[in-house]
Please model this.
Amino acid sequence: MAKTTCSTTLNQRNGFSLYAMPNPWLDIPLTDYERHMALPQVGQANLIADRLAALLATHRPSSLAIIGCAGGNGFERLAAFGLERVVGVDINPHYLEAARTRFASSLPGLELVTADIQSSAMLFEPVEFVYAALLFEYVDPMRAMISLRRHCRPGGVLATVIQLPHASLAAVSPSPYVSLHALGSTLRLVAADELRAHGEQAGFHYTACSTLVSPGGKEFALQTFCA
Model:
């Protein structure tokens, strides 16, 4: 479900440096993460995959990078779009091995890169379309935006999905998968207008914003930028 406006509620970062902290994603089993995201009261796996498919149908790029790809959520939709290159980036190598096992045969142009997107290094050759969903909550947004601009071709598109604050719902949804509890201490919500400012400072041109609503009632901002 999509609406046409975005929340601009500002968050307080309190001087917390995400870049210097141990990364909890290295210790969360992929099965826990995927089962959590698929819970009916969460419903974020389908939201992310559905929006990616809709964006690809609109923009029709020849090359795509999915940042924070985990085990390949949404990869099952990609064969229909005739992509010449698909790059999956994640900090957890075990997630990428699962993605390779699942999708290497159906996506012959698949490249999988174990990396922290906050790095100043060149991680892969630039692509026409970059998709970063539920990433900025766990990274330094300015560092990440600078890196994403480096990996997006001139004239290419960056699409981001960020979680918006909610008056009554916890930032990390309650879950029977206890390993996900570690995310609560590192997750920091980023306001839509803050992310827009970071994107523009990194050299992107802001193009659009809409609000998505998950089955669990949480709201997410979908923003697009042009390189």
Notes: Residues 2-7+20-226 form a domain with the Rossmann fold fold (CATH 3.40.50.150). The CA atoms of residues 115 and 123 lie 7 Å apart. The first helix runs from residue 30 to 38. Strands lie at 2-3, 63-67, 85-90, 110-114, 127-133, 152-163, 205-213, 219-226.
